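Obj.: predict assembly geometry.
Materials: sequence records (below).
Method: joint structure prediction, all chains together.
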Amino acid sequence: MSKEKDQRVNYFPIIMSVLVVMFAIFFIFSILLYFSKFNLAKVYWTLLIGAFGTPGAIAQTLIRMCPILFCSLGLLIAFRCGMWNIGAEGQLYWGALAATVVGVYVTGLPALFHILLAIIVSFACGGAWSAICGYLKTRFNANEVITTLLSNFIAYWVTFYFLKFHLQPKTAFNPSSLPVQPTAVLPIMLKGTLLHAGIPIALACAAIVWVVMNKTALGYSIDVVGSNKSAAAYGGIRVNRIILISMFLSGGFAGLAGMGEVLGIHRLLIRNISPNYGFIAIAAVFIARLSPVGAILVSLFLGGIMTGGRYLQTTMGIPIHLVDVLVALFIVFMLLQPIVEKKFLPTPLIGIEEKGRD
Amino acid sequence: MKIVLKAEGIVKRFDSLVANDHIDFEVRAGELHALVGENGAGKSTLLNVLYGVLKPDEGNIFVRGKRAKILSTHDAIVKYKIGKVSQHSDLVPTFTVAENILFRDIPKKYRWFTDRDLMRRKVNGLLALIGYRLDPDALVENLSVGEQQNVELLKILYQDSDIIFLDEPSALLAPQEVKDLFTLLKSLTEKGRSIIFVTHKLDEALLCDRITVLRDGKVSLKAERSDITQEDMLKAMFGERIDITERPFSSIDGPSKPILEVRDLCTGDGNRLSDLENVSFVVHSGEILGIAGIAGNGQKELLDVITGFSQPKKGNVLLNGKDITQHLSPHMHRKQNMFAYVPEDRRGIGSLLNMTIADNMILGEGRKSYFFPRFIRKSSAIEDFSIRLIDEYDVRTTGVDAMAESLSGGNLQKMILSREFSIDTNLIIVAQPSYGLDFKTTEFVHAKLVEMKTHGKGILLVSKDLDEIMRLSDRIGVIFKGRLKIIPREEASVDRIGRIMVGVEEDK
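Observations (raw structure tokens):
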């Protein structure tokens, strides 16, 4: 669990372990680059420039960060409740579908209300989709890993069905919907880029999630249920209700990721709206250790690598797959970071168990 | 008669606790030998030493006259032909009977393929040997507990073990199944096998040929069945304990009123040992009602009904004169602070191990409105409250932000006690409050219970520990096979409670 509230957190082990892990990642990647006959220094420099070098690059990084952050926020709520929601991708698609319907077919609203309506509806749709899996868990004890994982496929193909047979204009050749109303488009924050208002919304959501999880009764109950269901029931917490609420919130935030992609970037619905943001976010929240602040940092970093990688491909001709390797290395090694961190921790003084006779 | 298994001066320590204290134990060829003792007397430890699970600190083991070094269960099974049927099934539930029995060498044909026919024939041969009928192709998960136990026994027979341990085999069996089991065991001993039957039930021990009784890690009785009486056994099991007479009786101001009333409670369909049968009792303010009994005789079912985790089949639960049977739910109970409850399972139910001590201290819906006014966490109040409790109960920790899992068993229990006893309620339910705790912590827990009593609270104490029951209770109930018998304090003695606990004095 996150320990923001604890003033006496010892940051030394965290910083040291992250440094060690980063070194390991770049060491392995450097070997790959060396054998691929690329200039190491130039590659890393280009990667950095491509991700953060120019205002345009930063904007692109933030744009990629946005859906990962939304999904991460959703997932961390479910994970802290002990619900292994693997369905953020599908929940994202429902959010995208809902945002498209509201964006295209609702007319005559002022921009602010139109966007607000789209946000609410896509949150509700993503949340409801996720809550179904939560209900199956509470009612039939269906394993949520299986139900959420499979619900991804349903969500994807249902979205495609609506896109193909209802949203796509007769004249269009490729499956894509009509463009959303101008009032529904998320405003651009920086001229000449696609830096849309979804990013500040995502950051605001991160703040909201932080407050809910650390400062409210609901957040406490979610943590208790995630920690020990039997103890939660013993303490009088209505476990099933908390599971449903957390799953609803979880899917809701993932739905907002879809909303951001539709109203902020494409401004219409296309078939493959998400390059697996919902799955990348699973790794991201674990690296972030289920903390909203960590989720911001990790999704920013992942957005940076992805953007810089595209830049590497165009400027240096480095295959994009090599960049995917870098992302994968980052995910794998960062998941090992807690183990490395333990090496830097002082040894605990208490914790000796008493043994029973039988 | 030949002695097949002999243990000399076995000592096994766990830190400061001596679980086996110079135990001498011997088993003859072809006998049914009962190893008897209360919970915690050291039976399981001795068994594990002889079966190669634990290494003894001192002492020698002789198998069939030769000095034996049993270093692992594999040694025990293969080298020394010792088999064990454990308390909880070791079978693979999704495998068939035959697959489970022939686990160690599945017969093959054409080198790669399983020979199903041969498997079936082998198992049928074994079944014929003990005169038992069972389908070799039945899945183990579809068998009854008794049948599963017989499969385990067959597995051991197939391993050719002639020294067989049965660890509390009757704990989960219906009475008829127990009878069948004994018939089977007798037929095995007649064929020359030696069986060690571990139990805490007197009537079953008395069906065996010879008896060894353990108490507090020592052998307290070793005799032929024909030489001893029930009385001797009881004395050996429970000892001649001195009843503590100077009990801290409280002088309650005003008349004591009933707080918890349970009437004619029944659960389940009455087939299991632990199903309650017409349990009735009252807990008054300012008294401790102790419920003694061997684990699994309905204590869990009783507590589950009172605390709202399960619905009774029949009967009523009254709290402060109000019938709450219909709206029993942990949420309602906790929200209205109807009782404080210290559960038996401290780690699994009573605490949140990977959360902070402060977060543990505020568990309970009844406190929500205080610590989360308008749903927002009041961190300062939570911290003050937690610090006050860990000071008052002397919970040894680095601070309220430490994780609960860093606490030792005794400190964890103190944390749970402090949380529950600070609830503003007049009923306290405690289950095994001092189990596994050291002497000093136990004293502390007992003192706290008495303190709560003098504050006029009604306390329901469920414990396996007879000393604890005798020491604290104002009235004593003994639960056996789901039936509760209440004895006034004056008439209670360790001897008498012990009798009822093991079913000797069932209806008198």
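Conclusions so far: Residues 111-140 of chain A form the longest helix (30 residues).
To do: check interface contacts against the pulldown list.
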